[in-house]
Amino acid sequence: MNGPDPTTPHPMTGFPQVCYVKNTVNNPNIVIGDYTYYDDPDAPEDFERNVLYHYPFIGDKLIIGKFCALGRGAKFVMNGANHKLTGFSAYPFFIFGNGWEKVRPQPSDLSYKGDTVVGNDVWIGYDALIMPGVRIGNGAIVGARAVVSKDVPAYAVAAGNPARVVKMRFPPKVIVELERIAWWNWPAEKITRHLPAIVGADIEALRAIA
Asked: Is 83 annotated as catalytic?
């Protein structure tokens, strides 16, 4: 056997709270890799409810890589949350119409920070909040209830509000090697065969396989 079927919404028998969310997301602007799971006893199949202010007319994307672990309540605020800030009022009158649409802002009036991108093998903790346009590198860890408003480097641990990097998981040379090896792109059979090296901490052993 070479691991669970990545096309199965619930890969753990008896644990419906764990969901491979790639199989349940319908929004074309949410792209999720194989084996990434959301753990929530309350309808984990409805992960899209955690992607907030994601209006199709804006066009921004949430991209999450493979083998990510998303804790209960992890949320992603998208660019649709932004209001015009240059006037006296930040209230979005225009969205209610009925004569108020005459003050619709131009796209250049609103802050647009681009796509939100989460790398591979990222662990996002309970109730973490990821703000628009943030990029989280491969192998990073985001602590519970962190508010991430800035990019998180690969293999960093970020925590707090606002989140800051509290430590790096490995030395720089090891991180460069891990990024190069990119084990998450290996075929499932190869991953299964070399799991001890993937979950271990011997970069020489992993390099020899790659």
From this structure: yes
164, 178 contact by CB (below 8 A): no
The Cα 28–Cα 31 span in angstroms is 7
Q: In CATH, what number does 18-82+114-169 get? A: 2.160.10.10
Active site residue: 10, 54, 83, 194, which one? 83
Per-residue confidence at 1, pLDDT binned at 50, 70, 90? confident
How far, in Å, CA of 124 to CA of 38, rounded?
Answer: 10
Of 39-43, 92-96, 142-146, the poorest mean pLDDT is in: 92-96
Q: What are the domain boundaries of the chain?
A: 18-82+114-169, 171-210
Report d(CA 18, CA 27) in Å as an integer: 20
User: What pTM did the predictor assign?
Assistant: 0.94
